[in-house]
Each structure stands twice: as C-alpha cells, then as structure tokens.
Records
---
Amino acid sequence: MKTVTVLGASGFVGSAVTRALARRPIRLRAVARRRITPPAGQAETTVVSADLTDRAALAGAVAGSDAIVYLLLGEGGWRAAEGAERVNAGVLRDLVEIIGGGHGPPPVVVFAGSTSQVGVPPREPLDGTEPDHPATPYDVQKLAAEQFLKKATADGLVRGISLRLPTIFGETVTEDANHDRGVVSAMARRALEGLPLTIWGDGTVRRDLVHVDDVAAAFTAALDHPDSLAGGHWLIGAGRGDRLGEVFRLVAEEMSEHTGNSPVEVTCVEPPSHAPETDFLSITIDSTPFRAITGWRPEISLPEGVRRTVAALTSSVHGKVRT
C-alpha cells in the first residue's frame, strides 16, 4: 500500500481530495492545522494536526510518503498579500528539501496552482502555453512555487505536478468559516439571507466554473499518471465560460425553490477602485492536454452543482437552528 499525504486536508479543496482518496486502498495521511474527522472509506487514514510552517512538524507529517498533495493556502486566500508567501511558496521549498534526494523513485508532489498565474489572459481559451505575467501577490507566489517545483523535478529530487485550478464552487463538509468556498457559495449565503446579489459590471464576464468534487477527481487522476505529468503545469477547466450574471440568477432561483420565497434581485454595481484588472476579463480553459493523458473530465454540470451547493447550505443552516 502506498502512503499518500494531503497537506491542507481541512480546506475546501483539501477536504474534497481527502474524501476522494479515502475511497482507495491506500495509507492516507490527512494533515491540517486543526483536528479533523477522518472520512470513511477503504483507506487506512491517519489524521495529523500540525503547523506546517514549522519545519520539524512538516518533516514528521510527510515522513515515508510516496505522494504528497500540496493544498496549503496562506492567510487571505486568493487575495493574499505578501505576508502569505511562507505558506503559498515557502513551505513547498522546505518540503522538497526534506523529501528530495532519497533512495528509490522520487516522491510525487501534486501542487495546487491557479489559472490566474498567467495574469491578464492574452486569449481565450487558455491552454497552458501562454507566457506568465502574474498580476497579484498571490499569483506571483504561486508561480514562484511552481517554478521551484519544476526545477526540483528536473534535478531528480521529486516528481512534481502543478495543477492550475479554475474558479471552484460547490458544497463542503468543513465547518471552518475561514475557508474561501468561492463566489457561488458566497452568493448562495446572501440569497439565503434575502440580500440582493451584486455583480461588478454588467454581468457578462465569464468564469470557467468547476465543481469541487471534479477538482478532487483531477488530483486523483494526476496521482495515477505521475510520470506522464511530472515536470509540467496542467490547466483544469470545464471549458464552458459561464456568465456570472446568469450564474447568480441561477443561484437566486435555486434558493427560491428551497425557501419558498421570491428570488432575490440580481443587480449590477460599479466595481471598487481597488479591483484588479483580471476581475473584469473573461476566462475559459482548454484542459485537453491533461484530459488526453488522464482521461479526466468534469462530471457535474453547473445547474447540478448549484443545486447541491444551495441544498447543502440550507440543510446546514436549518440543522443549526434545530439544535
């Protein structure tokens, strides 16, 4: 049995990846800053609570791992400032120094990057061949970590794979309010509170939305094809390009179905002055290279994903009220 370690197992994506891996006959190590409940499944699961910015704690958490999924996210999430560099990139450098250069096949490291690393998208769709010009501190940090992982792979220390992730949405089992669950969940919470859903601009900006369970499936697919993917970065996307105005209206209508109230209003507003240029540009993803190697493709449609997101949110809120 191989040992697979998930770093950041309590997060939005991390909890989904951990659940997916728990279904496999492996030794699974779920590592998070806080204590979590291990998911059910075939895997022999161990939960480790650790502050991974502590190098000794990191070394203990990953000891004996055949593969590591790196899903750590610095404070502030995707809008992180410079202070998040330690988590977004620094811990990865420590990780490679700890596990690299041992005996046997180099361990696999699957890193969670972002499609936004490219900066202002030069065309649609993105396919991963574009030059990178990151426009935010978060994207600068993610790109630096990815480049470090690629060099470590070229040097034979690890077999590194970077999955550049799109806009992720969906339900979650984690109760940690600090985790960013994405724009769809944020709008669903507003709709549940009876608040209007506000869009910057005219609502025609498109995002490539992929359900969190499909993203988790991309990580398991990457673990199944390490030698074909190692050393590269791979874009993950549905290839649809959903207009945010239509997505928000779908959320409002779905919430109306669950609550029996009229759909909340979807309104367009002027964006704040601090909003980055990339917030107003459409992004669609061509993930053909990754699909050709792994056979992965997203299975959950946007309407089904929104339905599940809204249902999980209303069920969670009603459950808290009853208790």
---
Amino acid sequence: MDAPPPASEAPGDVVGRVAALLRAVAAHEPSGGRTSDLARAVGLARPTAHRLLSSLADAGLVDRDPADGRWQLGPELWFMGSAARARYDVTALAQPVVRRLAQATGESAFLSARRGDETICLLREDGPFPIRSHVLHEGIRFPLGVASAGLAILAFLPDPEVEAYLTRADLAASHGPAHSHEAVRERVAVARSDGWALNPGLIVEGSWGMGAAVFDSQGAPAWALSLTGIEHRFAPARQKELGELLLREAHALTTALGREGYPGRAPGNREPSHLRKVVARP
C-alpha cells in the first residue's frame, strides 16, 4: 500500500506533479502509459506516481485499463475541456486557413498553440502530395525553439523573454547539439529577418518544416502556422514562396482572431510589421 504524502509536501508541489502526470498521460495517448514510464517521464518515484494516478482515477481525470494496466485520460477532462472550449478553442477559425495551406502547397499543414514553454499541435491537414512527414500530429508537444512552430513563436518574443527561457531550458540535452543556446539564437535572428522560421531536418533527418507566428490581440505570438514535408520540397528556391504564403495566412488568422477577441481579450490587432509588409507586397 502506498504511503500517504509527506506532511511537508506543499500544495503547489502536488499540483505541479499532478499537472506533469496529466501531460505525460496525454503524451502517451491513445494507447496509454505504464506507471513506470509515466513516473520516469516526470521524475517521480514509481510509488508516488502510482498514488497520484490512483487519486486522479478516483476523480475521473484518468482511467486505467484493467487488461494491461495502462493509464489514459479520463472522462472528466473531456467535460472540462468542453466547458473551456468557448474561451480557448481557435480551431473553428483556423481550420479553413490550415486547409488552404495544405491544398495550396501539397504539404502537411498545422496550427500549434503556445502553452507556457511549449507548443501543442491543435490541427493537422494533409495536402495532396503523396509523401508526407509524420513528425507532427495533433496533441504532440515541443519546447519553444524546437520545430518550426516553436521557433516562430520564440523568435517574436521580446529579447528578455527569449534569454530568460534559454537560461532555464536545456534544449541541447533534450534535442541534441543543434539546439544549443547559440544555435537557437542564430535561428531566432534569421527568423526575425525573414519573418518565418525554418527547421532544416533537426528533429528527424530529411523532414523539414517552416512556420509563421500568429499573434493575439495584445501583439504576443500565441499560435503558429506551419508546414512540414520531405527535404527536397523545401529547397531554397521554394522557401521564399512557402514563407510568404505562411505569412499571408498568418496575417489572415491574426486579423480574424483579433476581430473575435481571442482568447477572451479585448478585440484589436497589433501584429508585428513584418506580417503587414508581406501582405502589402504585389
């Protein structure tokens, strides 16, 4: 039988551990995760992870498959998500934009949202080109600065926020030396100059991506549109074409979201000038 939580365990610590466990369970969907794998993913002892997961199951926040013992997200999360959807779900406005990108380019197109130090993929639409990259899928998370969506968002944060993030994030340890602080800073500078971000196969060799930030009504990069495909489809001669198309659609979505006041903010549109300049080009 698991021991009760230590009396000295602060409530904030428990909340953080529970949130980390729920994110780890979500990352293992749809097949579910074993207790040991989930514990390892969040840096908890297995008995502690099991105790917390059991409590979450009692609350309906996770389920456990009696056949194989794997943990999956529970029904209460669906109800909570449905209740929050009206405030945070941008997919209804973004879906036609993502579909246009996929059809116009032939590639796989995506919408990702910033959540703290990560991006979460919300939408995927596959274009007609028969060879596809499967690095991204709905629900996958990446740290800011990793993958084109996360790099596009990071690039348009203020310099102090970028530096604070790089100080606390060890991207090289989790994603290899190509994500050293200096390498990420260089890609941020290029993305700011171009207006769009490029991932030249840094996650999976041969799978390239490009992304453009989408801004909330306060002018902050809160989402990103991106395209992924095989390397030869992202040759330098085509990057400018794809980048400008991404920026045009990012402008369209930023404008639509600003008009609707997402997420729960006053309507407005203070997008950075690089989007307006691209749209103004003949």
---
Amino acid sequence: MTSEDLLAGSSVGTGLLEIQGVAKRFDVRGREVRALEGIDLQVSQGDFLCVCGASGSGKSTLLSLVAGLDVPSEGKILLDGSPVVGPGPDRGLVPQAGSLYPWRTVERNVAFGLELLPVSSAERAKRVDWYLAETGLSKLRNSLPKQLSGGQQQRVAIARALACEPEVLLLDEPFGALDVQTKEDMQVLIRQVWRDTGTTVVMVTHDVEEAVFLGQRVVVLESSPGRVAADITIDLPTDRELAVKRTPEFLALRARIEDLVRAQHNKAG
C-alpha cells in the first residue's frame, strides 16, 4: 500500500492555515501579561513551518491557540477558511511528552482517535497498520508504553496524531527530552513521514539546528510579547540527509537564525 492509496479517501483539505492579527493576554495575579501580539502568518497545505524563539516568546502559546486548546484575546485563526474555535480532528497535536495511555498497547494507542470518528473497523485497521509501519512500530504493536524507549513513545504519539489524517500536525518540542542520537533519528523520521503523507506540519522548537534541518520556513518570534521578528525560507534540498548539517549553506542559515534569536532575547532582557 502506498501513501496515495491510503490518503485517496481522506478528508485532507487544500486550504490555508491563517493566523490573522492574533494576540493573547493572561491575567497573572491581577497583572496583564502579553504573551503574543499582532501575529500574522499563513501556512499552505503541505508546508513544514518551524517556530523558534527565546523563552517568553509565546511559541507554545501560539501552538495551543492553533490546536484550539485556548482562544485568542484578539484576532482569529482560520483553517480552510473556517474559524478555529476548539480542538478538532483536522489538527493533530503531539506535546512535549507523548501522553500515551499506559494501559493501552501501541496498536490501541494509535487507534484511539479513530475510535472517536465515523470510521469503519476495516478502515481503522488499515490506517493503524500503515502508520505503525511508517513510524517503524509494527513489531512493537502489542507492547505497552512502559516497555518503550522515549523515542519509541514519541513515534507512537506521532502515529496516533496522524492516524486521524489531520490537515495540520502540530509538534510542541516533541524531541526536547531525547538524547542527541535519538533526536536525530526522530528528525529523519518526521521528515520522511511529512514527505510520505503530505501533511502540513507546524513545529515549535528551541533548537535552531533542528528547525533548519526540518523546516521549509523558520519563523523567529520576539519576546515579551511574542511578535514575528523574521520569516525565513530555508533554501536547502527537500530531500535532506543528516550530512546536510555540515554544509556551508546549513551552517550559515543556522548562524543567521541563532543571531536573530539571541538578539531578540537580549532586547527583551
């Protein structure tokens, strides 16, 4: 089975993710804290966008708004022209910790979201099988989360989010707690899954090297409040191996974005 076969009948749309004039403010002990201000972004279907910024730049807050877990104080977020007003199957979220159900096997964790959708048992089994294979988990399908490594648990979380075939996959620093070798393995995996499925990806990361390796675009946020400081196209080959991290082009992009993040951090301080 190919990805085209699997996705032929999916509900994946062709619209934009649009973030229009979004601001988010919180009341902290009677004091207003501005987390985000005036965020304007467009993400086309099939894009891979990475969002970077120093602490206090509102990266995770922005992702939470797109996921529908919170609402903007100002502005709006649209997907396929429809307002985002809460969580939905058109967006799949993978948090920093995979949040797997410990009593469910790998297979049943991946199937969880599909059990809540009007999907036949045959279609559910087909999707689960495909995403287990895509993420290298087929031989672990009967294992429990406690029997898995950190990287394997994150693979399950990614497979679970993708099995519902969302239009947008949202990743909130999903590899931050992994060792360097496992993190690089997961970076290669997520680019492979992105290429194979054509799913739009929006990823928050504090790791600039990771953002440059994964993204087609990297957005750098200012801090306190978070604003878009730069939106940079990553002019590297679509098919990337880890060796690209040693090329002059990659190193130049990484240095440029690291300087931007540092400048925004120093400005906020």
---
Amino acid sequence: MTDTKESTIEIREPPLYAPNEIPAVSKRWIPGNAAKMVSAFISNWTPFGLVASYFIFSTCLYTYCSESLVAIFWFIYMCTNFYIAGATVLEAFMSITPCREARKTVTQAEERGWLFPTAHDQLLVLDLLIVAYLPNEQDIIMDRALYALEQIDYPSDKIRINILYNTPRSIEPLETELHQLPLTYPHARVIKVPKSTSKADNLNYFFALDTGSDLIAIYDCDHYPHPNGPRWAVERFMADQEIDVVQGRCIVFNADENLLTSMIAVEFDKIYAVSHPGRATMWGFGLFCGSNGYWRTSLLRELKMDGDMLTEDIDSALRAFSRGSKTVHDLNVTSYELAPTTFAAFWKQRLRWAQGWAQASLKHLKMVYNKPHDPLHTNYNRNFSARFGVLSLLVIREASYYLVTQYFVLTLSFVLIKFPTSGKELWKFVYFQYPVSQWLFLISIICLVATLWITNQVKSEFISRKMIIIFAIQYPVYLVLMATMGLYGHARQIVKYSSWNPTARS
C-alpha cells in the first residue's frame, strides 16, 4: 500500500479559455473546419442510410420472390431463430446450478454468524477503482465515492478506494472536495488522469502505478457495490488459486422510474443472473463485463485496456480467455447501477455496445480455430465446447441481428402483398404462414416462457412479476429493436465511426 501522504495525485493542466476569451481566429470560418464538419455529418448519417437501405431493399426483394423461394427463406429464419431460442433456454437451465450454489454459500455464511472463512489479516490487498468522466458524472461522483469509503465492509488496511477521473475543464469546487477526501479517509486515493479521453486511458494510467495490490476491482461511477461484494469476490480467489477474474452480478436499481428502465432492469436480471452464469457453465468460460469485475493485478497490468476498442472491457475479457485465464461469475458479488432513463441515452449506449461487440468479434474470431499459446498456461488448450461457445458468442450472436430483422421484413412483405382483412388472417400471416412454423413458433414461445420463469426465480428486489410479464409481452418488439441496433453498430463499424459517447448520468 502507498503512504497516506501520497494518496492524492493531481497533475495540473493549462487553464482553459473562458467563452468570451476564445481567440478571434477560432471564430473565423476556416475551410479545413468546414471539411471536418462535412466529414462528421457524413460519418454520423451514413450508418442510418445503410440500415434504412437494408430494410427497404430486403422488403422489396421479398415482394418479388416466388412463393416457393419465400417458403425456403421462411423455413431458414424460423429454424435459426428456434436455435437461438433453444440455446437461450439451455443457458437458463444451466444457470440453475450456480444460482443454487450461491444461495447455499449465503446460507452457510448466515449459519456461521456471517463469519467469512478467511481471517482479516490474511485477506488479499485490493485496489477498488471508481472510474468517472466528470462533465458527464459530476452530479454523482461524490455520492458514490462517499458510499464506497463508508459502506464497503473490508479491512481498511487491506483496501484502497481509488477515484479515477478525467475532465476537459476544471470543475470547482467539486475537484477540490474530491482531493480532500484522503484527509478524512486514509484508504482513499484521488487521481486526476492527465490527457485522458476515455475509460481505457484512466485505467491504463492506474495500471502503470505500483500500488502493491493483489487484486483490482473495476466499477463504473454510477455503481453502488454491495457492502459485502468485495469480500465475496476475494473469498473466491482465496478458495481457488486458479481463478484470474471474478465477475459479479449487476442490478438496475432505478427499475421503477419508467417503462424503459423497468425493461432494462428485467433484461439485466436475465443477462447477469441467468445467461452469463449459464453460458459459463455450458461452454466453460466466463467474461468480464466492464464493471463489478475483480482481476488479479498482475494479469490486468499485463493485458491493460485497448483504447482503440469501443468496448475495451469485452476485448480485455476475450484476450484473457484466449490465453487460458479463468473467469467465474459469482451471483453473490452484487452491485447496483443506473439504467438510462431516456430513449436517446439508451440508443447511444447500445449503439456503442453494438459497434464494440462487432469490433471484438472480428478481432477475436480466430479463437474458434487457432491454437492458443501462452507461456503462463502451457497446458491450456481450448476444447470443442469452448470453441463452439466462442462461435456462438462472436458469430451466431452477431448473425442473429440479420436473422431477426429478415424474419421481420419477410413478415412485412406478406402484409404488403396481401394485406390481412381480419385479425385471424393477420395471425396466420405473421406466425403460421406455413404449417411447420406452428411448431417452431410454439416451441420458441415455450423457450421464452421457461427462460423468464427461471429469471423470475432469481429476480432482484427491484423487479416485480408484473415487469417480467410486460417484458414478455413486448419482447418481439424489443428483439427487433435490439437487432436493428446491432445492424446499426455493424454499419458504424463499416464507416469506421469512432466517436466515444458516454452514457448520461444523473
């Protein structure tokens, strides 16, 4: 651990111009600036044009296809969507075991009077990082920092709460208040990262510091880690020396704010409590998801974060897996976060995720077929299950965006060619255009119901059964929306869109 006197690190930057002090030359029209504006406009709107053209062309194409050809397409889309639904429900059933183990662990701890197996003086040294972009998160950073410093239940001589932030302009008195935290809390460290423009820059700056920690935990600024979350994570490392990463469960706590946040909250419960632990059990590998993740310090400092990736967290997780590192999902390591409250914020967030996943998929697709090699894991070799899991995660998942949207536009073409005159005809056109689709559709519905039933068994305290029912009813619309966002992410990757749009926090 570093000395208390060195716990505040600040590098001053040159003062910024006030709005009325900007040099006159910057206000003049410059041809180069105009060219940049035109280029930015084209970069922003080309993906929209590509996605719109995709939908229009696909719909028109199906209206001109013969009935037999349309039947073939229909069968292909129904079968592939059935596979996706089947894989999802299999992951859900595979998640039952880790859910039971997590509950069993809690019961055992409760029976022991909440005494954890490891003595305080034998615990690993932990650096807990809270990463923030101040203009975007200036309203919440002090609250989250004080919460972490006061509420996390871990020996203060074994943990350091690090507030890493970057800002393009000085924000006072907030910054002064932040840098005064170590005076009250000796286990606090506040770092203003110079020349940083992203989360990756903030993290890589910290990784270059020698803090003497055994583990590093990463949290986005909007998170409230459960007071016992760090202890549960460290106990996993103590119990299994082969574990390199522990990914916890992220829970949305503003679920009741509006319909959008409630749907995102259900989705997060489905992902973090069901899909992630189920996939790890089924395919044999887990993934770091960006926040509420704990790493062995030596591994994280070696891998670092790739600032060229929009989702540097997924990239680092896949790079860790490619070299044989072991990642586990622990449902007791919980953290509470905010969901976007407006559709505009949600749209920006998911487009960044979609493009980031496309980048990561292209970069790491080779794991499906290449031979792993790492000097630290000489005996590691990906088996067929792990390789097929990578194929499902990086290829089939990305391809599903096209399968879902093609099914949608094919159905739309039916409506355009012969518009239904009654509800019965509409039902037949949408779902039972061909007899075999009755069975595929019904089985897919059963898979969805089973997945959400399992989700209901492990839902967080902020989720109601009514929210899950509403989520199930509107799921087809939500599925098409998410697939469209996936296509948009692909289109952005094609035009090499590179703007980093942080999610608005308040």
